[in-house]
Amino acid sequence: MTGETTVRTAVRFHGRSAQRETVRALLDGLRAHSGHLVVTGEPGLGRTALLQWAARSFRAGSVLHLGPATDRRAPATAEELLGTLRAAAGEAPLLVCVDDAHLWDAPARAALGRAAEILHTGGRIGLLLSVAGHRAVDPEYARLPVVRLDPLAPSHADALLDDVTDGATAPAVREQLLAEAEGNPALLLALVRRLSPAELRGLRPLPTPLADAGTLAAVAGRALSGPSPDAHDLLLTVSAAVRASDGPDVDTGLVLDALRHLRPEPAPAPAADPLPEVLAGAGDRLRFHSPLLRRTVHATAAPDRRRAAHRALADVLEAGGHRLPALLHRSWSLSGRTPVARLADRLAALAADGTVPASPRLRTKAYARAAELTADGAARAERYTAAAEQALLAGRPDRARPLLAAARGCAAPAAVRGRAELARGMAELRDGPVGDAHQSLLLAASLLAADAPADAATATLAAAVAAWAAGDLPACLATLSPEPVGPPGPVGRPQAPGRCPDPVRDHRVGMRALLEGRLDRAAPSLEQVVERGRTDDRPEALLRSASAALLLGKVDAARRAGARALAAARQLGSDALVPQALEYLAYAELRAGRHSQARVHAEDGLRTALRAGQRNTAAHHRAVLALAASIEEEPQAVARHVEAALATARRHGLAQAATLAEWAAARADLGRGRPHDAADRLGLLVLPGPGRGHFAVWRLAVPCFVEAAVLAGRPEDTHEVLTDFADWAAFGADPQAAAQLARCHALLAPQDRADDLYLRALARHDEAGGDFERARTALLYGKWLRRRRRPREARGRLGTALAGFDRCGAGVWAAQARAELRALGAAPQARGAGTLTRLTPQQLRIARHVAEGATNREVALTLAVSTRTVDYHLRKVFAALGVRSRLELARMVEQAEQDQGAGRSEKTGAQP
To answer: Which of 10, 267, 657, 802 gives the lowest tally of CB atoms within 10 Å of its CB?
Structure first.
């Protein structure tokens, strides 16, 4: 090192918008009533900073900061404490900030916790506590509402790093800093301070390890002070065991057996003692409450003791036949970092052995450790690259990028460099500018062409996917060309088309023919890809099958392949492929008009994409969620998802996601009776010009544009795009297009032809299926009939439309149908049934299952979602309906459905 970097104070709060909204709600409420809130999180996540922000933001009254109650004259009971606070407040609101409330002694904690519970008895006092997240919440505070600070998302940590260094960090150094900090802002700042300006700019090598014992201990503070020798051994053994574990917890039996090896002398059984407060036990598993403290325990232990813990774990695991984790621990029991060729070779061989049971996460660690122990530059580069590939499979691009940077620093042959470029391109495709991903993948294809033609074909197809996501049709066609693309590789030998593996070659040929408008050539190749997916169990092959089926408009085949890909990816632990499988499932459901099912898959996909660090995939899921919400009575949800999708799409060049999001916003306008706004938005997407939407998506929005333009009195704008849409409908790749085309012609037709065209559109809908699009046509037909003074026919069509909208949860469109029925003199819907219309389709399904007595786990199994998803939606149901128990919910659902059943026929006039 040449010195330390001076870190300037961050000019804004990064990544805490949800937590600040919760705190802001507490502050705003103090104008009328009292309130309380507990902030918790591991050391370094910003508990104190959030309390300081709250104190600066509070303008309605004064702020009082309380520290640990060491004064004997301090109030001893909750009532005395509350009286003191009310006296301090006077007539104005008062915010009381108590940082590190877990450090108060037991009587003071009891008084503070009880005072928080009885604040509502008078005054306008806000109690904002912070407690450590590296230990269980004290029972005195357990009943108070909690806001938890989690590690920063990669994008927010990246923004914080830019904020404090003015963007001066070299890309490779940035990747290592972000990976090492693991989202902990205080640790990230400490790591930056540790580096010299030359090191930050990549001009000098970084210290090893980057997060050393002193840095970790400084961020952890007093959280680990004073454990007994036995407790320290337990903590050290757990922290060492987690290093070769698939998750944050480890088997208790493994830890206890290792402790017996570590301390062979007679000692009390560790399980008989209370666990240290920084550990949590659940069943037969142990884990640290705080990842930071786990790392700190391991880093600050005496080197001899740390190596002894790994040796003890290796002995136990070897005896149990767990070869790969045992060998990892054996490697960590070595002194120093001297390369050990034989051990490195064994680690790499076990990591590459598909018969050895291990997750991608564990194989990542094994390959990386093998690389550290390897002296030969080419072999070290190959092992770092293999580690990065496994990290991507595990859904950890943040771990893959530093490994790729390490591989780049080693001399390696073209094939290894090609694999590294392929991994880098795939990481960028899921979480970076897709234009950069396209170029990386083209380079990978040229490097791999001679020695690894199968990998080269995969890289080429992925480059085409990147160009597709960017909406760059010429680049997509050029990439899919049978001629070699990209710069010539150093080997100078292009890949022959005949050497492509059949599925990849067929996908490429079919995709290019489709983009050229030659369905006769596209269909046979793509159908081959779909057909192979019926017998292949690999998630990658199944994802290709789902993609090909979507290109052909075979939505049922896409759903089957997507569901099988999802199951295969989950079974193999390939967390990186799960969001993509859910994306294809969501698109298939959306194309089939099943918005509720699309929403379920997109919600799950969004969570998994964010966990896997795939912001681009998350943007696609947000676009689907926006489209699903655009038919429901959720304008705020549409706006939220559209804004989030466009934020990523604009930064990373995602034309497809941007087009879908803009379409969703316009369709929400159209559903809420704002055709002028919808026509303005959609015109930018579908009319010819440089701003036209994605080449494969804009035609899907044409029916909405035609409807909006006609209602806005601008039918002349539709003629050119309707000709293009007719060609698209004839192409046959969209099952809804023929019916939508007939509906568009009906909207534009003279009075004497419109009737037949509406009937033709409804007949086509009956052939294609899809409740929502059929109901939209019935609604427009009903409106047209009412304005032609044919009320009886109009009532039937409008009733059918209302039933269809209710069936698919299209609340905002159902409201249009009800308004038309009221104009015909039909009675409004019963109040009880209307209560349930506040719920989204997924919430309604969950509410009905719960009302029938199902547990959350049973509901999850029935709907094929996670228990966490059911918990989340059920909380929303309780809030939307104002109920506080399952019994109240059951009564409300029963009453609402009785009201709906009693009034349906006479109130809607729907035809049987």
So the answer is: 267
- Pairwise pLDDT comparison (167 vs 303), residue with the higher score: 303
Range with lowest mean pLDDT among 146-150, 418-422, 494-498, 687-691: 494-498
**Phi, psi (rounded to 5 degrees) for 98:** -125, 100
Residue 341: count other Cβ atoms within 10 Å of its Cβ. 12
Q: How far apart are CA 726 and CA 28, in angstroms?
A: 55
Beta carbons within 10 angstroms of residue 20's beta carbon: 16
Q: What is the dihedral of CA 61, 66, 71, 74, to 10 degrees?
A: 50
Kindly indicate the confidence band of residue 567, based on its pLDDT and cuts at 50, 70 and 90.
very high
CA distance readout (Å), 848 to 376, 565, 632, 834, 892: 63, 30, 19, 15, 10
| Region for 517 from its dihedrals, namely left if φ exceeds 0, alpha if ψ lies in -120 to 50, beta otherwise | left
Burial (Cβ within 10 Å: 0-12, 13-18, ≥19) of residue 162:
middle
Rounded Cα distance, 338 and 326, in Å: 20
Give the separation between CA 30 and CA 358, rounded to whole angstroms: 53
Q: CA neighbours within 13 Å on the CB side: how many for 99?
A: 13
C-beta separation of 210 from 203 below 8 A: no
Instruction: Judge whether residue 831 has pLDDT over 50.
Output: no
Q: If we measure between CA atoms, which residue out of 625, 697, 686 comes closest to residue 654?
A: 697
Helix and strand counts by DSSP (H, E) for the chain: 44, 8
CA 285 to chain centroid, in Å, comes to: 27
693-718 pLDDT tens trace: 999 899 899 999 999 999 999 999 89
- For residue 550, the Cα-to-chain-centroid distance in whole angstroms is 23
* Residues in CB range of 716: below 8 A, 6 or more apart: none
Whole-number Cα distances in Å, 103 to 129, 144, 546, 554? 11, 17, 55, 62
- Looking at residue 486, its pLDDT comes to 44
Q: Are 378 and 345 within 8 A, CB to CB?
A: no
Per-residue pLDDT tens digits for 598-624: 999 999 999 999 888 899 999 999 999
